[in-house]
Amino acid sequence: MNSEAYYEQGNAYRRQGNWQKALECYAEAIELDPESPAVHAQGDAQQHLEPTLRMPLILEKQITAHRRTAFVAVASKKIQAQRMRLRRHNESTAQGSILRKKL
Fold this sequence. Notes:
Mean pLDDT: 77
Largest sheet: none
Order of helices and strands: HHH
Helix content: over 70%
Distance between the termini: 104 Å
Low-confidence stretches: none
């Protein structure tokens, strides 16, 4: 295929919403003809594709933050439960020593 054919193929992929394939075709067109209109089309396609490529990273950060928050919540509940057990233990121990003193 020649540069024009790759450019047209890239446009077809772009109309279908297949930005990655469009970029590949534009790159081929530019390789064959550095003055091809694919240069401008490639820039437009890259701008459109960039947010899509960043989305998984953004989602991963949100998931990590959510997991961290959930871990802190669970750890906090475990600490509260442990404090309650310790308080009960201390209270029962204190009551036992008071009873022993009276006897």
